[in-house]
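Postdoc handover notes: sequence design on the structure in folder B. Input tokens:
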């Protein structure tokens, strides 16, 4: 199953290490976790951020989905994302 809503990819894994009742959510950075201001970082989107926190609390797997690379990726992952979500919440 693959579902895209609000820039969030929901994918149910078959088999593997993930529990069958848990989903993997790939959360886009620009335009989803924050307003789209690429290559700058836009204002946080608290509706999505709070939703992602609830998904993690429910035991789902969260990954940061972005096309950023190099210095602008480092800035997003190391400086900005932890302001919104605990580091252990998102895998990159």
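Designed sequence:
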């Amino acid at each position: 199953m693959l579902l895209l809503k609000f820039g969030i990819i929901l994918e149910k894994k078959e088999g593997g290490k993930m529990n069958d009742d848990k989903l993997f959510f790939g959360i886009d950075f620009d335009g989803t976790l924050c307003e789209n201001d690429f290559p700058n970082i836009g204002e946080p989107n608290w509706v999505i951020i709070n939703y992602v926190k609830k998904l993690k609390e429910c035991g789902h797997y969260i990954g940061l989905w972005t096309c950023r690379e190099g210095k602008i990726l480092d800035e997003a992952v190391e400086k900005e994302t932890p302001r919104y979500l605990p580091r252990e919440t998102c895998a990159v």
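Context for whoever picks this up: The chain has a mean pLDDT of 75. Don't rerun without checking with the PI first.
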